[in-house]
Design brief:
heterodimer, A: about 400 residues, alpha/beta, Glutathione S-transferase Yfyf (Class Pi), Chain A, domain 2, Rossmann fold, 3 domains, 5-stranded parallel beta sheet, 5-stranded mixed beta sheet, B: about 140 residues, 4-stranded parallel beta sheet, 4 helices, about 40% helix, binds iron/sulfur cluster, binds FE2/S2 (inorganic) cluster
Amino acid sequence: MEKAQSEEKIKKLIQKTGAYLCMDCSKCTGSCPIGRVGATYSPRSVVQHIVLNGGGLTEDHLWRCLTCGLCHERCPADVKYPEFISSLREDAIARGVKPQATHQGTIKELMRILAKDDLKQNKMGWLPDWVEVIDGGKSKESKGDIYFVGCSPYFDTIFDDFKLDLLGTHTAGLELLKSCGVTPAVLANERCCGHDALWSGDKDLFLKLAKANLEIFKEAGAKRVFVSCPEGYHTFTTAYPEHLGDTGIEFINTIQFLAGEMTAGIQANGTASVTYHDSCRMGRFSGLYDEPRALLGLVDGVELREMEFTRESAPCCGSNLWINCDQISRKMQVDMLNEAGKTGAGIVLTSCDKCRIHLACAQMEMGNVKAKIEMDNVLQFLYRKAVRKS
Amino acid sequence: MADFEPRIVAFACNWCSYAGADLAGVSRLQYPPNIRTIRVMCSGRVTPGWILRAFEHGADGVYVSGCHIGDCHYAFGNKMAEKQVALAKKLVEQLGLEPDRLHLEWVSASEGQKFADSVTGFVERIKSLGESPIRRKD
Ligand code: SF4
Ligand code: SF4
Ligand code: SF4
Ligand code: SF4
Ligand code: FES
């Protein structure tokens, strides 16, 4: 019975992700960054295997993929491999197979606790004074504008050693929004968006988190929710409506919004040459390639030096979903940092602070990275290094 | 809440605290039965992930014990434990639980009385804090 159900599900996912259209060209395998640095990972053969046999993957097949989307980008038949593999994960989890959690499960357990009903979080102590924190009830001042912080306060604790100032990204986001006349409130009890749960196949956990978030957004009377985390933004704009129907809320990417609102002539404190890393959720998944570049272009004295592989072809930061971090991940991170170094820029900027965590982790292994390069988040860089001309 | 019996997970190092707990037992020292002891090879092995997992599964308190500083069988395991527990405490607090629900204690193999006393004290403390807000409704 269970087997029949599983077979039925797999048939459906082959349909849904277009896997039956695969023409065995292997462009995906040739593009996959995991294969490039040495692992024998072949999305083509996984697709072929499932379409022909309907199951029987090894754990390596199941969990190794980073869902970075480069294969899908290049696939001539539009096979949605990241969705394909995460549906297979969902099926595997239903059978009791589990991924290996990194950081001894700290982050996984955190997400599970964040899905609990009676939670009274205490994570917003660092906010600028002007920001209203809503803890139950409606917003008094923000007119339905909400800013979503996400897991950064927890990551800031866990990765304290890396000294990344992950909260500074949100301070910057909020202050820059304010400079454009938007003063959103934050929600004391917002949950993790559920991105990692979803893509690692834990659909139940994703749904719990998503429902809790929507309830909290609605209770606060949210009309527009500003999101700086690219994973959160993509999850709210695509996965929430897909799984829970129309949310009735406008989710806005902070960088995209600022790029539309701010005007040229922002003065920088000195000059800087920077390079920009397109994270997968910002770029390939949300199509936001031009916006961060446009925003950087508004600042006088900032020179953008592009890496060889950018935009649709940008490499992945090597680790995703807090599962499967190993030597392959490390190799990808080191390669990426070296690519950034080759541009001659002094700073590599990213819009995804999770990328920044993984890349900083690689940098901590001294000697590994030939090119020493600073790292920053686009929003923080803009806020700290550049002052608006009044 | 008068009859609230806390559920407490206690991680005890094999080389010291676990033996200390044994000593408390064979010496017939009294301490409340609220702890579920998990033996680990060193307090340094207890990660924030395990501590959160205990809370996620409905623990009202988590007690971590290891060898006194300087006595760790693996030299610096208990130094790691100090760091890991401090990190976990911060997470627990951010999650909105009282940080006092997590406790680290050094207990040697000869300190049966200390083990019994500190567990008794911890159980009292958790009793006064009440049920964990994220305890599973079952
Ligand atoms: S790129 Fe697309 S069509 Fe080609 S093998 Fe991969 S999944 Fe199949
Ligand atoms: S999503 Fe990325 S990691 Fe996964 S198979 Fe495709 S290219 Fe490889
Ligand atoms: S997308 Fe990631 S970082 Fe952002 S809120 Fe969700 S889990 Fe946290
Ligand atoms: S690269 Fe990322 S997932 Fe891997 S160990 Fe470092 S921080 Fe953890
Ligand atoms: S061996 Fe007891 S704390 Fe390390």
